[in-house]
Write a structure and sequence with these properties.
Its cofactor is [4Fe-4S] cluster. It is a single chain. The chain has 388 residues and is α/β, with parallel strands linked by helices. Helix content is 40%, strand content 21%. Strand 5, helix 3 and strand 6 form a beta-alpha-beta unit. The longest helix is centred in the middle third of the chain and has 17 residues. The radius of gyration is 21 Å and the shape is globular.
């Protein structure tokens, strides 16, 4: 691969623009989930819908349109159909319809025909369903509330309503999960014939039930086991006709998640809702992760931004390399030089990666080998601070 398939974003105002909406409501808390979430009730949902509209009034994008939109959570699918239409209209009235892609996350237990039809009517093009596993025992171990029957029923409904693209999520390296069980999960997911498959190694986020079990010694982390699971995933996906385009993501041709691709390429995105994160207008920031505090700030005409970091060229370049190298197509060093005005093609560290068999250099494009992708986190850590 001699050239990057995706245009490298330029300066502020010249990049693709995304919008991320965080819907914080969940019926229950999964043992592994570290995202901000709260129990849903009618009063909370109504105040949230009003808050989204208020926050959008504080977002000024000028004449720009949003290219992609992603609703995550929480469980966006918990919103009733009419409320989904209200939230969608608030966004499109303020910023216009996404020009390329609109994704909504759904849990199998929240998938209902009226909700799917409302999303289709609103303009959603892509559904991402978190099935996590197709093994009842492992679903129970994760604290998930859906069954295999619900997974299949929900998937069939999504296909019947007819979205352009459908993704399913799987989690691996679950405590007590065997490699053969993992391969069976992958094969089962591929048998559904989705357009996209995301697979995530189980992580132990602080303040989750699984993290507490880790602290108590009831479960453990085994890097060698995780590596075997990664290898098994790559083999099964290739056998199933899926192309890996990022360490955790696989797609049929034309079905990559553009919202994520632009994020990894360090474009711009605006986060709306409590705990929604943004990279926008020269800074990186997060909305306060509390519904009441978020609403109180909006009453004062403030978005309640926390963890604000000013974006330097060095920081953006560093992150462009770290996240870009996680993608199979790699990074175009010459394009990044033009974007950030820094010399990259003679960096000794990149030569070292090639010499160690962790990367390949084809012209100006640097990409990790399978061996390098296995240690991508370590490569990323080694890049920290080199260009900041």
């Amino acid at each position: 691969m001699s050239k990057s398939k995706h245009k490298v974003p330029q300066r502020h105002g010249e990049t693709p623009l995304g919008l991320y909406l965080h819907v914080p409501f969940c019926s229950t808390s999964c043992d592994f989930c570290g995202f901000y979430q709260i129990q849903s009730d009618r009063k909370g949902i109504l105040s949230y819908i009003d808050g989204v509209k208020r926050e959008l009034e504080l977002v000024d994008v000028g004449s720009r349109k949003i290219d992609t939109m992603f609703w995550g959570g929480g469980t966006p699918g918990l919103l009733p159909a009419a409320d989904m239409l209200k939230v969608g209209s608030s966004i499109t009235d303020a910023l216009g319809m996404p020009t390329q892609e609109w994704t909504v996350e759904m849990a199998p237990s929240s998938v209902k025909r009226d909700k799917l039809e409302a999303l289709k009517e609103a303009g959603v093009t892509r559904i991402s369903m978190g099935i996590q596993s197709l093994n009842e025992r492992l679903l129970e171990a994760l604290g998930r509330q859906h069954s295999l029957k619900q997974i299949h029923k929900a998937y069939n409904l999504i296909r019947e309503v007819g979205f352009r693209s459908v993704n399913v999520d799987l989690i691996f390296a679950i405590p007590t999960q065997t490699e053969e069980e993992w391969r069976a999960d992958v094969r089962g997911a591929l048998a559904l014939q989705p357009d996209h498959l995301s697979t995530y190694c189980l992580t132990f986020e602080e303040d989750t039930a699984l993290f507490i079990k880790l602290q108590q010694g009831k479960v453990s982390i085994d890097p060698d086991r995780e590596a075997r699971f990664y290898t098994a995933m790559w083999e099964e996906a290739e056998n199933g006709g899926f192309q890996q385009y990022e360490i955790s993501n696989y797609a049929r041709p034309g079905h990559q998640c553009l919202h994520n691709v632009y994020t990894w390429r360090m474009a711009e995105w605006i986060g709306v809702g409590p705990s929604g994160s943004s990279q926008w207008a020269g800074s990186r920031h997060t909305n306060t992760p509390d519904l009441k505090d978020w609403l109180a700030g909006l009453e004062r005409g403030e978005r309640g931004l926390v963890d604000r970091t000013e974006l330097s060229d060095g920081l953006l370049l560093e992150d462009s390399l770290i996240f870009g190298l996680r993608m199979n197509e790699g990074v175009d060093l010459a394009a990044l030089e033009r974007r950030f005005g820094r010399t990259l093609r003679q960096v000794a560290f990149f030569d070292q990666l090639v010499e160690e068999g962790k990367a390949l250099r084809e012209g100006d494009v640097l990409r990790l080998t399978p061996e390098g992708r296995m240690v991508a986190d370590a490569v990323g850590e080694a890049l920290l601070g080199r260009f900041g």
